[in-house]
Amino acid sequence: MSTTKIVSILFYVAAAYDFILGAVFVFGGPMMFDLFKMQPPNHWGYIEFPALILMIFGVMFYQIAQKPEQNRNLIPYGVMLKLSYSGVVLWHWLGQHNMPVIWKPFAVADVIFLIAMLWAMNAIGRMMKPMQTY
């Protein structure tokens, strides 16, 4: 299987993961908090806004999956998303030991996606000429 095909599959999986996860929290936030027996935030906007951002990133990952070489300039944004979320959760989970369990599996998944996206960015970069910056 070609590197481009593997990168496409990675980003199709990332697209589905982020879009579906975002939709779950947009449309089923109360159910998720009930399921984990957690107190929700004082306003659902604190959950809905980041969930909608996840859905937007899901669309971006789909675009990358469609044409990885042409859209590789978008991959660093995905890397930053995964680093931001996993970094915050891991910081509080490992450093201060007060991270609710609901967020931990997503942080582990995002570390895996982060590593895979860094590999993809590097692999595509080796196949193509350097990116131009403006």
Give short descriptive properties of this protein:
134 residues, 75% helix, mainly alpha, elongated, 4 helices, single chain
Q: How would you explain this protein's 3D organization?
A:
The chain is mostly helical and 134 residues long. Helices cover 75% and strands 0% of the residues. The chain has helices spanning 3-35, 45-66, 75-96, 104-127. α1 (3-35) packs antiparallel against α2. The longest helix is centred in the N-terminal third of the chain and has 33 residues, at 3-35.
Rg, alpha carbons: 16 Å
Helix content: over 70%
Biggest pleated-sheet summary:
none
The best one-word shape is elongated
Poorly predicted spans: none
Structural class: mainly alpha
Mean pLDDT score, rounded? 92
Please indicate the percent range of residues in DSSP E strands (runs of 2 or more).
under 5%
How far apart are the first and last residues' alpha carbons, in Å?
34 Å
Number of domains: 1
Structure summary, number of beta strands? 0
